[in-house]
Specification:
The protein is an alpha+beta fold. Helices cover about 60% and strands about 5% of the residues. The protein has a four-stranded antiparallel beta sheet. Strands 5-6 form a two-stranded antiparallel sheet. The protein has a two-stranded antiparallel ribbon with strand order 7-8. The longest helix has 24 residues. The radius of gyration is 26 Å and the shape is globular.
Length: about 500
């Protein structure tokens, strides 16, 4: 045993030397066969020498060195920790052997999109849960009249619970940086650019203003059409606070850019010139090309939505509600409000977005509750219960969506079915709200007609929410498998 430990220690020491020494190591983990080391400077890694150490193989994946050792990797990892003094990481239940030369198919790429998004959001769920629970706490205080809405404490807590969602791109950037092997400071910097006060002011000027008009079509004050220029290219006036997908796409591209800059720029110049050139590349890519994709898609979606509601009857709200989680995920739901306002000028109520929001929240909560009651995993049960509460009371869907439904897939599918059926019934009833506001337990009165006090729409939306929730809960109860969820958690 002593001889084996000595051999493992010698191999670990040699690996440390060939990856640039312990000062070049950020962190390390291992899967079933590989030692995975994330480095500060990939230029210091000597792959050719690593392959000569008697290991099965070695390769680079972004800033991560993967040394293929085989079944002895846990023992080598223990010695590696002793030598480097780095923090222990949880073992990754994954075996990539045999896949080194396998080309990814389109199916593989598409299948990795949702897990990638989840991996960029799941680490920040504590912050989202905290703000969601804080919002529920404030609402309970106000609605039980313990404190008034004008109370200084309530006013302070109100802006505080919005912080995590306003700065969502920044929080996501920290997790995405690790996922795509980008320096965290650079990823956060790009996220800050998207929500910088000066940029937001330029966006507002570029977008113009839409003023609701209950007596007719909304009043539109045209904007400049852009949010400035960079290198002669117009910057599209898109809003990025509360969004997730734009910063994930930007950081993913940054991972490729950083990799090649570190490869091409000499070591002595990297510290200064890699960040500079990276920003000069990513600013036009992020602000002109990648970032605005969501905004441009929202225009197409708005036109499609208008056509759907005019031609498909109750099928239109059903389809919109079924896919609302993905619309929310990309941030496109903010841009649908103009469509809803335009259609409300004709029907005198919002039959587009608000019913879909409320039904989506109800179904997501039901799916989370079903998972919480069925699972044997205490952490998953706690997250499911808190997520169901967050969906139903303050109307915060992110913890449940990224921690339960989207992550385990089956609850997402069942919630889409349940909410879609509820929306179809709502479409037949012509359910709509008469004012704007976030979808939660305390804003259901939005469905009361203020002109005559008619509660028909309120009763109908509650009926649809209950039907959708029951269908979602039953389907999730029978289709969700705890064992499969355990496998997903094990893969990280």
């Amino acid at each position: 045993m002593a001889k084996k430990e000595k051999a493992f220690g010698q191999l670990a020491s040699q690996i440390v030397e060939q990856v640039g020494g312990k000062d070049n190591i950020v962190h390390a983990a291992h899967c079933m066969t590989r030692l995975r080391i994330t480095t500060k400077d990939t230029g210091l890694v000597n792959l050719d020498e690593l392959k000569k150490l008697g290991v099965i193989g070695a390769q680079m994946v972004g800033d991560q060195v993967q040394v293929i050792i085989g079944n002895d990797v846990p023992d080598v990892y223990e010695e590696f920790l002793k030598i480097t003094g780095i923090t222990r990481e949880a073992a990754i239940d994954e075996n990539l052997d045999g896949d080194l030369n396998k080309k990814k198919t389109i199916k593989d790429i598409l299948g990795s999109i949702l897990p990638t998004i989840v991996s960029c959001v799941f680490p920040i769920l504590p912050a989202l849960c905290a703000c969601g629970m804080l919002q529920a706490f404030v609402m309970i205080l106000v609605n039980t009249r313990i404190l008034s809405a004008s109370s200084p404490t309530v006013q302070t807590l109100t802006w505080v619970y919005n912080v995590a969602f306003y700065f969502l791109p920044v929080l996501v950037a920290t997790a995405a940086a690790k996922r795509f092997h980008v320096k965290t400071a650079m990823a956060v910097l790009m996220a800050c650019v998207l929500i910088a006060p000066d940029f937001i002011a330029l966006v507002a000027a570029g977008q113009g203003t839409t003023i609701p008009n209950p007596a007719g079509p909304p009043t539109v004050i045209p904007g400049t059409g852009n949010a400035g220029y960079i290198f002669g290219l117009p910057i599209y006036p898109a809003t990025y606070s509360n969004t997730i997908l734009p910063i994930i796409l930007i950081v993913a591209i940054m991972g490729v850019v950083e990799k090649y800059l570190n490869k091409w720029i000499p070591k002595s110049f990297r510290f200064v010139f890699v960040p500079l050139i990276e920003m000069l590349i990513m600013l036009p890519v992020g602000l002109v090309i990648v970032g605005p994709l969501g905004a441009r898609l929202s225009i197409l979606m708005g036109n499609l939505l208008t056509l759907m509601f005019r031609t498909l009857g109750p099928v239109a709200p059903a389809l919109l509600t079924m896919f609302m989680p993905f619309i929310i995920m990309t941030g496109l739901h903010f841009n649908l409000m103009a469509v809803a306002m335009s259609m409300a000028s004709v029907s005198a109520k919002n039959i587009v977005t608000h019913p879909a929001f409320f039904l989506t929240q109800a179904a997501q909560g039901a799916a989370c509750l079903a998972v919480a009651l069925k699972t044997k995993n205490p952490e998953r049960r706690a997250l499911g219960l808190s997520s169901a509460f967050s969906d139903w009371v303050p109307g915060i869907s992110e913890p449940g969506m990224y921690g339960i439904t989207l992550k385990y897939k089956t609850p997402m599918i069942t919630s889409m079915i349940g909410s879609g059926i509820g929306a179809f019934i709502g479409g037949l009833m012509n359910v709509g709200s008469y004012a704007g506001g976030p979808p939660n337990l305390f804003t259901l009165p939005l469905f009361i007609n203020p002109a005559n006090g008619d509660t028909t729409d309120l009763k109908n939306i509650i009926i649809c929410m209950v039907i959708g929730s029951i269908i979602t809960f039953v389907l999730t109860w029978f289709l969700y498998k705890d064992k499969k969820a355990d496998e997903i958690d094990a893969k990280g």
